[in-house]
Write a structure and sequence with these properties.
- By secondary structure, this protein is α+β, with helices and mostly antiparallel strands.
- It contains three helices and five strands.
- Strands 1-5-4-3-2 form a five-stranded mixed beta sheet.
- Strand 4 and strand 5 form a beta hairpin.
- The longest helix is centred in the N-terminal third of the chain and has 16 residues.
- The N and C termini lie far apart (29 Å).
């Protein structure tokens, strides 16, 4: 799996705590090996986000991504559940 980062994702990532960044890197590495590993709870989104999917980073921290062709994903946003799905 190849992951690209959207500029909004990069901005949101910079605002995370060091602990959250560390957890993200751990989960990103799992995603790169197997995007559908159960620990990630990879699932499709509904409504206005229906073309995107989400993975869990921590209990409340999520990454929204767009699956592209040929094992490529574009990470769109990272944040808490409530901030991302307002």
């Amino acid at each position: 799996m190849i992951v690209y980062l959207h500029r909004n994702f990069k901005k949101q990532y910079r605002a995370l705590s060091n602990a959250q960044k560390k957890r993200f890197k751990e989960r990103r590495n799992l995603f790169l090996k197997d995007p559908f590993r159960p620990l990630l709870h990879n699932h499709p989104l509904l409504g206005k986000h229906k073309e995107f999917r989400s993975i869990n980073i921590t209990g409340d921290l999520r990454v929204i991504y767009e699956p592209l062709k040929n094992n490529v994903a574009l990470f769109i946003a990272i944040g808490t559940h409530s901030a991302l799905y307002e």
